[in-house]
Amino acid sequence: MFTVGVVVNPVAGLGGAAGLKGSDGLDVQREALARGARPRAGERAAQAVRTLLSRRPDARVVSISGPMGAEGAHELVRLPSHGEAGVTTAADTRAAVAALGHVDLLLFAGGDGTARDVLDAVTELGEAAPPVLGIPAGVKVYSGCFALSPATAGFVAAGFDGTTAEAEVVDLDEELYRRGAVSPRLYGSLKVPAARRALAGRKAGSSTTAEGTVEGIAREVVARMRPGTRYILGPGATTLAVGRELGLATTLLGVDVVERGGSGFGGVGGVVVGADVTEAQLFELAKDGPTALVLSVIGGQGFVLGRGNQQVSPRVVDAVREGGGELVVLATQQKLAALNGRPLLADTGDEETDIKLSGHVRVITGYREGTIYRISPASEEFDL
Fold first, then answer.
1. How far apart are CA 285 and CA 288, in angstroms?
2. By the 8 A CB rule, do 232 and 312 touch?
3. Cα–Cα distance for residue pair 10/322, rounded to 1 Å
4. Residues 61/4, Cβ–Cβ less than 8 Å
5. Nearest Cα residue to 283 out of 26, 35, 7
6. In terms of CB atoms within 10 Å, which of 63, 137, 173, 235 comes out highest?
7. What is the radius of gyration, based on Cα positions, of the chain?
8. From CA 348, how far away is CA 175, in angstroms rounded?
């Protein structure tokens, strides 16, 4: 019998919509809950399990009892309880992986921090460790061991034939990340199913991008801005350049809302309507008049929504669309060429929203330069 284990980090992604740029640490998790954040990792794990069983109903799913377990599992394994009631830690993740070390394939729902814990656990198991696959549920998902979406993780698991490949695990120091320092570190590699097209791949840096290209993109965005319309600037160096072009100090890793001021390049100015906003704050701003989304592409992965910008939730997207707003995508020609024809991706956590966003979008690639490119739901079925 084909047996799949599932481990859920129940606090993964908790800090995303709350604008906290991560979920590591009990204080951060409590602050995220205080800001109205809602755990989503369990839902995403359940989606992967449903997809797996719909395609391979003879599979047996084993998970962990309590908050680290996945809905739909046939068998639950109880871990020894320790520490604060209801609170899970990295040690719990490692213990859960060890407890499920006998399965044919292990799925884990979390982000890069969870991937590091899984790496530690399978290293301890040695040659007896099963192949693993990440279900993306974190704020930042830079490692290459994650499927493109929860549903894709289920597709891959259902079609797994034992063939594996190596995928990198990288992570950031969240405290430095919150202060604007983006310095991913390679921690090692995990054995994953050999389904390259269905995996997100490691995030590629943009250090080789010419400064003039980014500034040209920013200049073009500002030239297209309409007074009276609010513009949501997602995270990233390219959107940060848009803020600079407006004469504004916007945030590198947060989501900001701005408006354009005067006309003409000599007199263009702007105002920050909301700085480093939470999902709730963004929704209130988005529904209060015409609003547009300005989002950059994650290099190497192609994600436009759902990675590092969870503040742009399905209801925010709906509010923008209902107000007649548009999605403005920013990417250098280098980033698009590196995708090798693969589509841009949306993973908002709501399949209907991702489908609404699918189609072809205009991508601004420089000053007076742009191209039409396809965007697809991350859960779109791939020929594995």
1. 5
2. yes
3. 33
4. yes
5. 35
6. 137
7. 21
8. 25
Q: What is the pLDDT of residues 173-219, one digit of tens each?
A: 655 555 555 567 889 999 999 998 899 887 765 554 555 689 999 99
Measured CA to CA, the distance from residue 277 to residue 254 in angstroms comes to: 7
**How does pLDDT run across 239-261, given as a tens digit for each residue?**
999 999 999 999 998 999 999 97
Give SS3 for 174. helix
pLDDT single digits (tens) 87-107: 688 999 999 999 999 999 999
Spatial strand order in the sheet of 270-274:
270-274, 256-260, 230-233, 291-296, 327-330, 359-366, 369-377, 344-346, 303-305
* Residues near 51 by beta carbon (within 8 Å), at least 6 away in sequence: 150, 151, 153, 154, 155, 158
CB-based contacts of 242: which residues, under 8 Å, 6+ apart?
Answer: 217, 218, 221, 222, 231, 233, 250, 258, 294, 330
Task: Report the C-alpha gap between 313 and 285 in whole angstroms.
Answer: 13
Token pair listed for 152: 């894709």
Rounded to 5 degrees, φ, ψ at 141 are: -130, 80
Q: Which residues of 198-214 are buried (b: 16+ CB within 10 A; e: fewer)?
A: bbbbbbeebeebeeebb
What are phi and psi for residue 169, nearest 5 degrees?
Answer: -115, 120
Q: Could you tell me if 20 and 51 are in contact, meaning their C-beta atoms sit under 8 angstroms apart? A: no
CA distances from 291 to 16, 184, 284, 325, 355 (A): 21, 33, 11, 5, 20
Give the whole-angstrom CA distance, residue 329 versus residue 339: 15
Q: Which residue has the tokens 């995403």?
A: 44
Q: How far apart are CA 250 and CA 45, in angstroms?
A: 35
Residue 127, amino acid:
E
The torsion defined by the Cα of 248, 249, 254 and 256, in degrees rounded to 10, comes to -30
In 157-180, which positions are buried (b, 16+ CB within 10 angstroms) versus exposed (e)? Answer: bbebeeebeebbbbbbebeebbee
Residue 177, φ and ψ in degrees, nearest 5: -60, -40
Give the pair of three-digit tokens for residue 166.
């190596």
Overall pTM > 0.85: yes
How many angstroms separate the CA atoms of 241 and 122, rounded? Answer: 42
